[in-house]
Amino acid sequence: MENLILDGRVVAQNVKDRLKDRVANLVNKGVTPCLATILVGDDPSSETYVRMKGNACEKLGIKSLRIHLPKETTTEELLTKIKELNEDETVHGILLQHPVPSHINERKAFEAIDIRKDVDGVTSFGYGQTAFGFGKYPSCTPAAIMEIMDYYNIPIEGKHAVVIGRSPILGKPVSALLLNKNATVTTCHSKTSNLAEVVKLGDIVVAAVGKPNFIQGDWIKKGAVVLDAGYNKGNIGDVDYEACLENASAITPVPGGVGPVTISMLLKHTVDAAEETLNIK
């Protein structure tokens, strides 16, 4: 397993291939899986992400309902739109693109999403279910990390996983998912003392800090598995890839690592939610 490159594009295609028959089965039963994406404002990066997600849906036969609201939209107006989508039985998943304009209460908007349609894993209720081990739709990037490890048969049980980052939709939920798979988990953050020394203890290292090339090669224990969930300007991850590659037994590239799988997990969760409406097991 020396220097195994964890190719997210292969993993993502595997996920999508497994979804094709499930989507066809739903359509035959009169249900077209539908993901509603809400974009508030005109952030170019957000527009690109929403378009990519919509295109990925349509290629698989999932309906993409794209809602673009002006940047002047108030919190109450956004909540009203979310309520409409919650009540629309033809919509199975709701994704509110982050970030929203600063005058909007983003957390309040996230919490308004029906738990049955929280396919992006952004509600505190969904996070709680994930932490307890029975969440149906964990946040998509943490879910992608677990999917990559599963695809490549990377052992988790009994390993020491070090997660750098504690955001509510990445660092915290991936720590919970790893813990639920019987890893011993250390979650690091900006206040962690002797960060490099802590990272060196990790058999599994998850970089989710949002700083380009932050994780250095000499921080990585020989033979560790490195999963880079960072995506910074210029297609740069949170890991100094070439330097970390020397010590890692397996590593995700950026781009082409965690990113493609994140989108495929969003599709999977939307199909899962559509099946739930028909109680398909």
TrEMBL record:
- Biological process (GO), any one: tetrahydrofolate interconversion
In what residue span(s) does the Tetrahydrofolate dehydrogenase/cyclohydrolase catalytic domain sit?
6-120
So where does NADP(+) get bound?
A: 165-167
InterPro entries in UniProt: Aminoacid_DH-like_N_sf, NAD(P)-bd_dom_sf, THF_DH/CycHdrlase, THF_DH/CycHdrlase_cat_dom, THF_DH/CycHdrlase_NAD-bd_dom
Q: Which reaction does it catalyse?
A: (6R)-5,10-methenyltetrahydrofolate + H2O = (6R)-10-formyltetrahydrofolate + H(+); (6R)-5,10-methylene-5,6,7,8-tetrahydrofolate + NADP(+) = (6R)-5,10-methenyltetrahydrofolate + NADPH
| Cellular-component GO terms for this entry | cytosol
Q: What are its E.C. numbers?
A: 1.5.1.5, 3.5.4.9
Domain (Tetrahydrofolate dehydrogenase/cyclohydrolase NAD(P)-binding) spans 139-276
What one GO molecular function would you report for this record? Answer: methylenetetrahydrofolate dehydrogenase (NADP+) activity
Q: Which domain of life is it from?
A: Bacteria
Q: What does the subunit comment say?
A: Homodimer.
Which family does this protein fall into?
Answer: Belongs to the tetrahydrofolate dehydrogenase/cyclohydrolase family.
Q: What is this protein called?
A: Bifunctional protein FolD
Species source reads Heyndrickxia camelliae
